[in-house]
Predict the structure.
Amino acid sequence: TEGVVSGDCNRCSAEDIETYLSIVKSTILDVDGNGKADGGTDGLLLIRYLFENRGDNLVKGVVASDCNRCTAAEIEQYLEEIKE
């Protein structure tokens, strides 16, 4: 972390940063709510959302079969909530 974190950081050590990223990965980045963050589903949902795809264009072909948030409306609402 030397030279890459600011002096007033909240998570200053490599261990603190790794712990935080682990929490983020297992919670916030799990867009479809199936308990795991996966680049092929959650990652694509995030990318599509950032490129302003909504409705069927957001979810078509990428939502995990074991999702808890499965519809475009549910996923859009979740992503709006975590943006705040």
